[in-house]
Backbone:
């Protein structure tokens, strides 16, 4: 008989046991809640127009992005899954202006969760990769309800981080600070099964991902690095580079975990004061933890992303340079020389 394989829930229980945690089961329960949200989203994303979930709404999020129908549905599914079971004390979502505390009467848990419920949502209507990104932090023990300041913890304080990629197959990729593991959703039994144990990013690469249409706005070191990449074998980097752009960070980071590469969303002239395009709490920190745990590097160009001290604004942005370690270091040498 074909074996079932290791399910995500049994993997988490086993990992907690090995860590010798006197686990109350809350962390396992919390990851289970997140998994349920992701499975529900995967189901709708898979059905696409058949489920009536394509298209835009008339609303905008805190960053001024027009919200897609599926942005709001995915956001509600995360909230639904997290607010009822007593594992979570508060949430911050890319789709909500303010942090969310639990309604009166709901049991409070030990954890805070930040999430981008549908990363890359402009891909939704064209049937391309989208994903969810999440990060788990500890909630303050001495408060009934957390405040925005409680979410202002540097990425080094994350207890877990992960993403769910809704691509040709749906995959959950997770770290609890002990390496990175990938699980593929088996639609016939509705479980994520361990298919990619101990994911590791190759240290060297000749593949980069950046939105080149912004080139004239990039900071000088990134302009110079990409210019050198594009000179190929004749240039100072001495090799031919390839370029990819999925337009969903989940897709880019997943490719990098599978075969190496670097992903850049740098400071540009239009967003110099706010620090970049991507959000520190929903995108930068969780992806930085995953990338570092898989042996890669994640930097702003001026320091480790996970060491950025959040300013208390849950929608704070951060410049991002992450992926294969040696290539990130090469990019940082352009910043050092600038
Ligand atoms: P969103 O979550 O609002 O859909 O943003 C997607 C992010 C990120 O995932 C992706 O890498 C980047 O924005 C794409 O940016 P461009 O619009 O420059 O392609």
Residues:
């Amino acid at each position: 008989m074909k074996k079932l394989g290791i399910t995500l829930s049994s993997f988490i229980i086993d990992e907690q046991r090995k860590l010798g945690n006197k686990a109350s089961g809350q962390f396992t329960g919390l990851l289970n809640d997140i998994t349920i949200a992701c499975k529900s989203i995967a189901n709708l994303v898979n059905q696409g127009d058949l489920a009536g979930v394509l298209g835009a709404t008339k609303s905008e999020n805190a960053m001024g992005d027009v919200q897609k129908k599926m942005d709001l549905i995915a956001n509600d599914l995360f909230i639904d899954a997290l607010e009822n079971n007593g594992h979570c004390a508060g949430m911050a979502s890319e789709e909500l202006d303010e942090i969310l505390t639990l309604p009166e009467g709901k049991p409070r848990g030990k954890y805070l969760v930040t999430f981008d419920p549908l990363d890359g949502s402009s891909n939704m209507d064209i049937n391309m990769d989208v994903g969810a990104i999440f990060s788990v932090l500890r909630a303050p023990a001495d408060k009934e309800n957390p405040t925005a300041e409680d979410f202002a913890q540097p990425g080094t304080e994350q207890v877990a981080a992960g993403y769910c990629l809704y691509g040709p197959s749906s995959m959950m990729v997770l770290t609890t600070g002990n390496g990175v593991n990938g699980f593929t959703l088996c639609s016939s039994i509705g479980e994520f099964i361990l298919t990619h144990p101990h994911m590791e990013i190759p240290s060297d690469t000749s593949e980069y991902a950046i939105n080149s249409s912004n080139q004239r706005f990039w900071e000088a070191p990134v302009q110079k690095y990409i210019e050198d990449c594009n000179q190929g074998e004749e240039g100072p980097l001495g090799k031919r580079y390839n370029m990819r752009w999925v337009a969903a960070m989940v897709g880019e980071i997943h490719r990098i975990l599978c075969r190496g590469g670097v992903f850049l969303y740098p400071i540009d002239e239009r967003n110099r004061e706010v620090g970049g395009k991507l959000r520190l709490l929903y995108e930068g920190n969780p992806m930085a933890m995953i990338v570092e745990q898989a042996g890669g590097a994640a930097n702003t160009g001026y320091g480790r992303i996970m060491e950025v001290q959040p300013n208390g604004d849950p929608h704070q942005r951060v410049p991002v340079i992450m992926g294969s370690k040696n290539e990130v270091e090469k990019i940082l040498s352009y910043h050092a020389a600038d």
User: Anything to note?
Assistant: The pocket of AHG is lined by residues 65, 116, 119-122, 211, 247-249, 252 (CB under 6 Å). The helical segments are 8-18, 26-47, 69-82, 220-229, 249-259, 280-293, 325-337. The CA atoms of residues 34 and 81 lie 7 Å apart. The chain has a mean pLDDT of 94.
